[in-house]
Every structure is written in C-alpha cells, then in structure tokens.
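2024-03-11 09:14:02 DEBUG pipeline.ingest accepted 1 chain
2024-03-11 09:14:02 DEBUG pipeline.ingest length=182
2024-03-11 09:14:03 DEBUG pipeline.predict start
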Amino acid sequence: MIEPLTSFTRRDVLRAGAASAIGLGLIAQASAQGTPKRGGRLRLGTPGGNTGDSHDPATWGTSTLVHLGLWGGVYNNLMEIGPDNKVTPELAESVDSSRDARIWTFTLRKGVTFSNGKALDAEDVVASINHHRGEQSKSAAKGVLGSVTEVRADGKDRVVFTLSSGSADFPVSVSDYHLPIG
C-alpha cells in the first residue's frame, strides 16, 4: 500500500502536475471557514464584455451577458432547449395549446423564488414578456413576440398567450435567450 504524502513542497506539486497531485490525494481539500454570510461582491473577468453591457436581457448582445445571465443561474426562461435538442419546460411545469395553436397556456412550476425571496407568479411572467412587446421597446426579441396579441395571467400560476395566427413552435420562441423571466 502506498502511503499518501503528508508533507510536500511546491516543487513536488509542480513536478508531479496539479492533476496528478489531486488524483493522488496530495492536496488537501478546501473547506469553508465559518458560516456563510449574505452580501459581498463577486468580480469576474470574462472575455467579450464591455462598458455598455446591461442587466436588461432585452439588450443582451454579447455572449458574456448570456453566459452570466442564463447559464450562470441568474435568470430562467419559461421553456428551454435540452441537451437532446427538444424543448422542455423550465419555469413552466407544463404547456398546452388550443387545437389551432393560437392560444398557449403555461402552468408555472411551484416553489420557484427570486433571489429576493419573492415567489414567482404569473404577473411576473406577464411583466417580463410585455417588457419586450412595448411600442418603444428596443428589445432584440420584439420580433420573436410579434405574433403575440395578448399575454395575461389566469390566476397565480397560469399564463395565457394569444397569437395572431397559429404557431406550433411558440414554446421554442419563449426559450429565446432575451426572454428570461425576471
């Protein structure tokens, strides 16, 4: 049996390679010190960002913001495209349509809360979607929602979209990275 090293130098780690050192158990696991506390500042150096970047998803134009916003766990969409390239519910629990695909009803997932502790409800979805639909909106997703004639809450956990014409692809449309709910 090989005994793990209890003492080693920086040169030993460099000589063996960091990955080998970790694999052999030469480097002690990091552990949290004390109890977590709320607040602080996270600074990230990411490529492609610029001073004109905004937290408003309507204006996202760089991959940095998309990565931080969606894949960084800050925002979520009603629907998402899964690893199998199929559209699947994300904030929605389920989605149904009328036979002519003009009316789409999304039932929201229960137990979803914003970072401030407020529970997600249908009015949040309506406000987020209407942010992109306004007459003065400069949202890059305004065209994606061009066929939406109405979006309304139907209770706390259901959102109903009415389209000007049927669209079997509407659930894919609300997976657009400009359309997170926030």
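2024-03-11 09:14:41 DEBUG pipeline.report The chain has a mean pLDDT of 79.
2024-03-11 09:14:41 DEBUG pipeline.predict end
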